[in-house]
Design a protein that fits this description.
This protein is an alpha+beta fold. It folds into 2 domains: 230 residues, FAD/NAD(P)-binding domain; 123 residues, 2-Layer Sandwich (D-Amino Acid Oxidase, Chain A, domain 2). The strands form 4 sheets. It has an 8-stranded mixed beta sheet with strand order 6-5-14-15-16-13-17-20, with helices on both faces. The chain has a 6-stranded mixed beta sheet with strand order 8-2-1-12-19-18, with helices on one face. Helix 1 packs parallel to helix 9 and helix 9 packs antiparallel against helix 11. The relative contact order is 0.17. The structure holds 8-demethyl-8-dimethylamino-flavin-adenine-dinucleotide and P-hydroxybenzoic acid (PHB). The site of 8-demethyl-8-dimethylamino-flavin-adenine-dinucleotide has 37 residues, from helix 1, strand 13 and helix 9.
Amino acid sequence: MKTDVAIIGGGPAGLLLSQLLMRAGISTVVLERQTRPHVLSRIRAGVLEAGTVEVLKAAGVGDRLLREGIPHDNCYLSSDDTLFRINLIEGCGKQVTVYGQTEVTQDLYDAQDAMGATILHEVSDVALHDLTGDAPFVTFRHDGEAKRLECRYIAGCDGFHGVSRPSIPADVRKEFEKVYPFGWLGVLSRTPPATPELIYANHERGFALASMRNPMLSRYYIQVPLTDRVEDWSDDAFWAELLRRFPPDVAASIQTGPSIEKSIAPLRSFVCEPMQWGRLFLCGDAAHIVPPTGAKGLNLAVSDIFYLSRALIAQYADGNGDLLARYGQDALARVWQAMRFSWQLTTLMHRFPDQTGFDRRMQVAELSQLATSPDARRLFSQVYAGLPY
Ligand code: RFL
Ligand code: PHB
C-alpha cells in the first residue's frame, strides 16, 4: 500500500487531519487499533473553543455542530457557598460551544465515509520505520495479514498510549510530567442540565463540575482519591456527594437519575519535546496530556492538526517546507500556554491531600481576584475561550 500521509490513530486528531488533507487533494490512510463503535463510545470532551469550531467548519464538518452545539457566553466558578460568573464575551469577545467529542468524531467519520477515506480498524502491531529518511513506512497486521504502508510523512495521532511517541529515540525525547493526587469520577445521565452554563466548584469535600451535552443530557464530575474504583460508587452515592459540593441553590436545581456512563479519569499534565522527528509528526494526546479542568485536551489536538495540515498543504502545494520545519515549535508554543492554564485551574479548584492553610488562602485570594477584577477575568477568558492560532 502507498499513500502521502500515514495517520496512526483514528480518534478526533487523526480523523480531522485526514479530512483536511483529503480536501486539499493529499492522500491518507488512517490506521486505528480499535473498532469504530469503540472509538465512538468513549465519552470525553464537551467544550469546544471558538477556534476549534472554525477549524471544524473549514473541514466541512460544521453543519450539525452549528445546529446542535450550544453556545455559552459564560462559565461559573464557585468556592464553598459563593458563586460568580465569568462573562467570556466581556472578557475576550468569544464564546465556547458545548458539543460532545463523540459527536465531533461521528461527524468526522460521516464526512470521511462520504469522501471514500481509507480508515482501517482493528489494526495491530503497528511499527514505524525509516523516520529520518525520505521514504518512511509503516508495518502492521490487519485481517490476519502482515501489511506494509509506504508514505512520505507519518502523523502520530495515536493518543497517550500509542506507538508513535516511543518511536522518537529516547535520547532525543524530553518528557515533562506532573501527576495529580486525585482523579475525576464522571457520570452521564439523561436529565436536563442543572444550569444553562458550566459550574466549576471548589468545595471543602473536593472539586465538582456541572456540565452537559444537550438539553436532555447532563455530565457531572467529582474529584475522587486515586484509590477509588468505579464499582465503589453507586449512583446514589455519586449524587449525594455531588449535591454537597455545590452552593445550596445550585444543588437544589440538579435533577438526578440513573447513570448511563460512569468512569474515573486520572489527572496528569504531560508534554513531549520535540513534537517532530524526521518525517514523524506527533499530534494531540500522543504528544501532550492536560488535566480536564478547563477543557483543553481536544482543543489542543485540533490546534496541532491546524498547524500540521497547513504545513503539509504548503509543502504539497509549492514545495515550501518552512511551516513543516517549524510545526513542533508552533504547536508547542500554544501547548505550553494551555498547559499552564489547565495546571493553574486544577490547582485553584481542587483540594489536595497535603493542602495547608496557606495553600487554601492562596486559592481564596485568587478566586476573589477573579470575582472582583475584570482584568483577571479577561486573562482567564482569553485562554478558556481559546488563544488565537
Ligand atoms: P485519542 O482520542 O486518544 O485517539 C487516539 C486514537 O489512537 C488509537 N490508537 C492506536 N491506533 C493504532 N495503533 C496504535 N498502536 C494505537 N494506539 C492508540 C486509539 O484507539 C484512539 O482511537 O487522542 P486524540 O485524537 O489526540 O484526541 C485527544 C482527545 O481525545 C483528548 O484530549 C480529550 O478527550 C481530553 N478531554 C477534554 N478535552 C477537551 O478539549 N475538552 C473537554 O471538555 C475534555 N474533557 C477529556 C475530557 C478527557 C477525559 N478523559 C477520559 C481523559 C474529559 C475526560 C474525562
Ligand atoms: C465535559 O463536559 O466533559 C467537560 C467540561 C469542562 C471541562 C471538562 C470536561 O473542563
